[in-house]
Design goal:
The protein is an alpha/beta fold. The protein contains five helices and eight strands, in the order H-E-E-E-E-E-H-E-H-E-H-E-H. Helix content is 27%, strand content 20%. Helix 3 crosses helix 4. The chain starts with a helix and ends with a helix.
């Protein structure tokens, strides 16, 4: 049998770059998370309602070339444990993100939230502001800006200005 050191190194590197962590828990619930890449900046992807970490399967390989990319399954989604119905809350989801952040030993993180993931990352930012390096919303709700000047004809949600026929001009 011929040995191929390059192939063995590639396989070992892939195993090291993509490490799944099932040991993370919040409120006794196991949280599935995966970390990929070795960059100094850590980007945590939070999926939307009824989705899981595979939502980000196209983005992870590309971004992992430059960043450490972490995906997780929120409680009740994907490979994570399912809480009792009365346990579901944005607070639980935000604490799950915090458990994963602590597990990967990140000081500060950039959070990317899709759909329902946006209120999750907003809740996280409110609970753990010193842990947040940035927030990115993907097809999610944006909070109103109370310091914006009043404009009776403008949409009440800043994100709404990006839609419609003039959306491209308003970006």
């Amino acid at each position: 049998m011929t040995r191929h050191p390059a192939i063995l190194c590639l396989i070992a590197g892939l195993v090291l770059l993509s490490a799944s962590s099932e040991a993370v828990t919040v409120d006794g619930l196991k949280i599935h998370a995966t970390a990929t890449g070795t960059g100094r900046t850590i980007v945590v992807f939070v999926h939307g309602y009824t989705c899981d970490d595979t939502t980000w399967s196209e983005q992870v390989p590309v971004l992992a070339k430059q960043f450490r990319v972490v995906t997780l399954d929120l409680p009740g989604h994907g490979k994570s444990d399912t809480p009792r119905v009365d346990q579901y809350s944005m607070d639980l989801f935000a604490r799950a993100v915090e458990a994963v952040r602590a597990d990967v030993k990140a000081e500060r993180i950039v959070l990317v939230g899709h759909s329902m993931g946006t209120p999750v990352i907003l809740k996280y930012a409110n609970l753990y502001p010193r842990r947040v390096a940035g927030l990115i919303f993907v097809d999610g709700l944006m909070p109103p800006n109370p310091s914006a000047p009043s404009n009776p004809g403008a949409p009440s949600n800043p994100g709404a200005r990006m839609g419609g026929t003039n959306g491209r001009q308003n970006r």
